[in-house]
Structure formats: C-alpha cells, structure tokens
Amino acid sequence: APTVAQANPVHGSGAVATNSFISVEFSEPINGATADATTLSVTTGGTSVAGRFTFAEGGRGKHSVVTFIPN
After folding, report:
1. What is the pLDDT of residue 60?
2. 48 DSSP β-pair partners
3. What is the structure's pLDDT at 38?
4. For FRET with 34, which of 8, 52, 56, 67 sits at 20 to 30 Å CA-CA?
5. Is the pTM of this model over 0.85?
6. Rounded to an integer, what distance in angstroms lies between the CA atom of residue 58 and that of residue 17?
7. Do 62 and 18 meet the contact criterion of CB atoms below 8 Å apart?
8. Residue 37, pLDDT score
9. Contacts of residue 14, Cβ cutoff 8 Å, sequence gap at least 6
10. Which tens digit of pLDDT belongs to each residue from 3-60?
11. Can you give the pLDDT at residue 63?
12. CA 39: distance to chain centroid?
C-alpha cells in the first residue's frame, strides 16, 4: 500500500492558511480512479476544507503526486 513519502507543507505544520495548496508524494503510484474526495480529505479543526484533488507524475511514477486545491 502506498505511504506518504513527503508532503508540503509537512504534516503537523501550524498556521497553514485554509486557501493553501497541499502536495503529497506517495511511495508509489496511487489509483486515480479510486482516490477522490471520498477517500482523501483535508480538515482543519475537524471541519472539512472544500476543494479538489489533482494527480501528477512524480519521481515515483504516474499518479504518485496528489495536490489539494482549495475552493
């Protein structure tokens, strides 16, 4: 199963604005057909942040980088 290899901002970062893009690179490609807003989420204080996810090729292959773009 894929694991998080790196993230920007890093996990646990404080004071990240809710309109910030978040990028995560996984240890291996993920299935873009099953990775969506029902399987991936961004929250602040327990509340979901509205936005969309994009998938890109990274150093670990196609669909190994996911970027969250807030609305």
Report:
1. 86
2. 43
3. 81
4. 8
5. no
6. 25
7. no
8. 76
9. none
10. 999 999 988 888 888 899 999 999 999 887 888 778 888 888 888 899 999 998 888 8
11. 84
12. 11
Contact of 27 with 60, CB cutoff 8 Å:
yes
Instruction: Output the DSSP codes for 36-50.
Output: STTT---EETTEEPP
Q: CA 59, CA 65: separation in Å to the nearest integer?
A: 9
Q: Which of 31, 58, 47 is nearest to 39 (CA)?
A: 31
Query: Would you say 32 and 66 are in contact if contact means Cβ atoms under 8 Å apart?
Result: no
CA atoms 23, 51, 2, 9: torsion sign: positive
At residue 63, the 3 state secondary structure works out as strand
Contacts of 15 (CB under 8 A, 6+ apart): none
